[in-house]
Amino acid sequence: LNAVAGGGSFLLFPAMLGTGILPIQANATTAAALWPGQLTSVAAYRDDIRRNLRLALPMGLAGLLGGAAGAVVLLSTPQMTFMHLVPWLLLVAASIFAVSGPVSRWLERRKGSAGSAAHPPRRLPVFLFTIVVCFYIGYFGAGAGFLLITLLSLFGFQDIHEINALKVVSTTLANGIAFVIFTVNGQVVWRYCLLAMVTCAIGGYTSVRFARMVPQQVLRGLVVFIGLSMAAWFFWRNP
Predict the structure, then answer these.
(1) Which of 8, 91, 140, 201 has the largest CB neighbor count within 10 A?
(2) Which positions ≥6 away from 99 have C-beta within 8 Å?
């Protein structure tokens, strides 16, 4: 889920909270566990990244800047404040996925009407908006994959493999720098993290082929259902 659409946090974050660790530690441990899966997705998209290196480099830099800022802000947030934000963050992320279908169809129509008159993407606005999305990745991150897909489509990127490759570069570096910051600050609970890291790495690599076989409506529907269910659970737990 995480490599294809950014929805892995919907499953792993509640599981980490279920172990009894503190909310910010659960979020940091989730980010650490999901990162190897994103790293192996970079390997799977390496040919597309190599063909678009001039775009991948600024997208990667945006990921580093935004992810670092989001991680620092998260570590400055009190535990109880973050816990009360969790259901709202999950609800927002699930809502992003819920509108992903209609927005994707609108983007396809937009591309079709643009035809050969499409203009080359403007790299500076893409870079700045990517920093904003990657700030969210460093802070929480669920649903950020679709935000990046939408952002790149709106700015004129049309090849889905190019879009996914650039998305993976940004999210991997944003989560990677957050991973480093969380580790240095002692927020990652390694006894729960290591097994999840191995299984997420396997899932992240195999998902590239899997994503081509499963209908996108099924994937989106599953992610929305999981996200809304988790949001409802945390609203119930945190009245």
Answers:
(1) 8
(2) none
